[in-house]
Amino acid sequence: xxxxxxxxxxxxxxxxxxxxxxxxAAAWAAVPFYRWFCQVTGFAGTTxxxxxxxxxxxxxxxxxxxxxxxxxxxxxSFRPMQTEMTVRLGETAMAYYEAVxxxxxxxxxxxxxxxxxxxxxxxxxxxxxxxxTEQELAPGERIEMPLTFFVNPDMxxxxxxGRIRDITLSYTFFHMDTQKSARAxxxxxxxxxxx
Length: 195
Fold this sequence. Notes:
The protein has two helices and ten strands, in the order H-E-E-E-E-E-E-E-E-E-E-H. By secondary structure, it is an alpha+beta fold. The longest helix has about 40 residues, at about 1-40.
């Protein structure tokens, strides 16, 4: 009887361990999966990354507004150099943002972006953007950062997005702790060297 009970308890323990491992793996995979899902579907205003310009340009126009924000822990000024522009669907356009490091030390920032209304995110395609990489600014340094984009003409055929006439592109810059990154890189290199 005791042996049967021990086997039953062992099975329960192994099942609980399996559940914990599965939940941990699911939690770990949730963020990259959600990011991939948003990128593929344009969900939550996530824009697309284009490898080339649009192959067609329509006469239909759309107004694109530009917004800029900085998190409090990053001592930068950040603003769009134009507040809005009107572009034809499929037309490649270029806009600029300006960033200034107001601190007395070199700071690294990374921007996140969003498009609203969110239905337009799938059709807003970036060819080149400062948001693809981290930006490092020396004390007092000022830079102009380009953004090359187009609004996909297929937007007109979409039941929901086809009625949109105004899009807002919003960026938020976050401080990147380069010391933490350097320590993580050094730790990874040391771990690789030991293996």
